[in-house]
Known about the structure:
Blueprint lengths: L6 H29 L3 E4 L4 E3 L9 H22 L5 H13 L2 H9 L4 H10 L5 H26 L5 H29 L13 H16 L17 H7 L6
Amino acid sequence: MTLRLTSRYLFVFLLAVLVFTELHELSHLSVLGLVCGSFGPRDFNQWQAGPSCAHPALSYLYSAAGPLFSYLMMWLGAAALASPDPKRRAVGFSLLFANLPFARLFTALMGGGDELTIVRTLWADSPHFVLYKVLMILLVAALSGLPLWRAYRRIRNPRRWLWLLGFALGPMLFEFGYLFRALNGLLHAGVLPQPWALGTPAFIWLHTALCAALLLLFRRNLLLVDAEAAPATPRIAQAAATPSVVG
């Protein structure tokens, strides 16, 4: 596939990043509600269990729910890259990178993230803790790295490693500035902090609903990332653009 960037595509792609980031968090919280039955405070990228959890020994389940959702989306996107249909490839490419594969690996290498939380929950007192930590990082590298490798193999642009790097780092940097700094700053300053469903503040629900609505409305722009999948120019527009010759 030959990638190209347009302002319309970038707008819709970043909407997809925001929507799938929140779906990741809601995956955590849905399982948290089943296991614990209560919720602690949360913002756009951090959440806590409630003060009294019905089954604290099962905390690894809600820690695992978010990554499992994200990896599933990445691999579905990676699978679509093998399709002969350029539209499916374009959507698959966006689905893969909207779930931040590089961010999962980067966070694990820095010693954080849900995956290493699972290791600390299950094996914090084990004499083999370091081994389990290394094995988890290798698992994260495989689950996020293999889809990235498939995307790299499908890119036909010159200097494709730069395209891969841009899609790997760009969404992560965007979220850091927009979600974690700007919107978290507003939430912590008291903008609609009251929890609605799943212990999630009204501000987060309203922001996610707006992003999801815009994503659905402009979803066809996701095809613009692949030059082969971009919608064809309507015939009427083509006729208007073609000069006529009168004999």
